[in-house]
Amino acid sequence: MRPVAGTRLVYAPLVLGVALIVATFLVAESGHSRLRDATVVVAESQSRQALLSRYMQLLLEAETAQRGFLLTEETRYLREFDPAVKRLDPLLDRISVSYEASALQTEQAKSGRLRKLTGMRLGEMLGSLRLYGEQDLAAAMALVNTNIGEKTMADIRRLIVDLYQGEGERLLTATTGWRDDLRVSRLLLAWTSGFSLVLIVLVGVLFARDVQRRARESLQLTERNLELDRIVRQRTVMLFNLSSNLQTVTEREKAKLARELHDELGGMLVATKIDVSLLRRSCDDGTEASAVRWDRVLRSLDEGLDLKRRVIESLRPTLLDNVGLIAALRWLVDESVRRAGLACEEEYAEPLPDLSPDANIAVFRVVQECLTNVMKHAQANSVRLAVASDERQLAVTIRDDGIGIDEQRLEAPQSHGVLGIRHRIEALGGELRIGPPGAGAGTEVRFTLPWSRVRRAANGD
User: What residues make up the domain containing 323?
Assistant: First the structure.
């Protein structure tokens, strides 16, 4: 009986090894199947995100073309209108088919509503252009000024954001499954390696080759993981640099557009106002009805000049380039916080060393975003803005006495404003802190920027 028992003990590790191999294969195959399914979900979701982004881009191109034509009456703007409109319907078909193929009934219903809203928005734009052709610019602008298109556009944006966030959640779920499956695979590999060592001790040379094979596989897996980690780090740096470049290009395009509006549209409106004033002197028949009409025309030109000024300031504050950061921040506080009825305490370090153009606009945009959030969400009564400077760094603090901010929102993917602020600061080598102040309620945003990164160079670049 002893030899039989000894033989059974010898074969017991073999049976356990075979069972372990079978279990490993089943788990790996199951994980591979889940990864394959997750890959399909990721690919479909990314494709729909691209379609939604392209749809929004085409709709904005059509809207820009329509408004550019009505504002300038230059037909060159309409060259982009028809191509954009024609591509919208096929794009909506692809979005709807994609949701239908994925059996996403809720999203399919939303895509139907998106098609309806798109038709309403295109109908309003085409109607304004038709009124311009059949009647005059005033009739077209009267339709535009009804705000019907603006409300429809707001509904479209909310629907697009909803769909885009849904795709983001599906992507997050799929990638989370990926990580879980990878973690299980690694744990399984560690368990298999440990048990193989036990089998080597019990069975000897029989499993020596198997252990070597597993060791080679483990090394290859480690090398692949290291390579993947290197690729991920490289792609992260590339995406960070790309985002920084996009922000820089966007600000430069805004500045260019502001200059063009100031030089061309401003000059055009001023010249028109002068001409209208001269015509009034020579053509006014002295009646009350004529005086009302002349006053209405001149008032419309004044409103156009004021609109031009507000658009230019929103694109690129002229004070920022002409006078400096402190003056631009004072203007921003007056135009936003005080106009909204909030008390504001300001403290500036003057004179402040010259900042580079990129640092100037970054600091201005961050403060602008913070003040906007205070007015929209904080329910505050007062705001404090402080700009301090020492030999090493520039420090900016924005503090309010509102309801505060949930710390979970700071890291949420949907908090685009916070992410944008953080990226602007980190791109300049700075540090950002958002949280409750030391005492009392409210929120404090404080960021620091090293002078070595933000000071204007001696050659003025």
Answer: 319-454
Q: What is the number of structural domains in the chain? A: 3
Is residue 301 within 8 Å of residue 273, measured between CB atoms?
yes
pLDDT band at 436 (very low <50, low <70, confident <90, very high): confident
pLDDT for the residue 387: 92
Tokens, residue 400: 């309010």
Asked if 113 and 159 count as a contact pair (C-beta separation under 8 A), the reply is yes
| Domain final residue, candidates 266, 285, 315 | 315
Considering only CA atoms, give the Rg of the chain. 32
Q: How far apart are CA 137 and CA 141, in angstroms?
A: 6
Same domain, yes or no: 103 and 183: yes
Task: Quick: pLDDT tens for 150-169.
Answer: 788 888 888 888 888 888 88
Residue 255 has pLDDT above 70, yes or no: no
Instruction: Give the burial class of 352: count Cβ atoms within 10 A of its Cβ; 0-12 exposed, 13-18 middle, 19 or more buried.
Output: middle
Q: Is residue 132 part of a domain?
A: yes
Task: Round to whole Å and give the CA distance between 302 and 277.
Answer: 12
Look up residue 285 and give its DSSP letter.
-
- Domain limit, last residue, from 294, 315, 336: 315
The number of beta carbons lying within 10 Å of the beta carbon of residue 304 is: 17
Q: Are 314 and 257 in contact (CB under 8 A)?
A: no
What is the band of 241 on the pLDDT scale with cuts at 50, 70, 90? low
Rounded distance, CA 313 to CA 291, Å? 33
Q: What is the reported pLDDT for 2?
A: 45
Residues 202 and 219 in one domain: yes
Q: Residue 360: is it exposed, middle or buried by C-beta count within 10 angstroms (0-12/13-18/19+)? A: buried
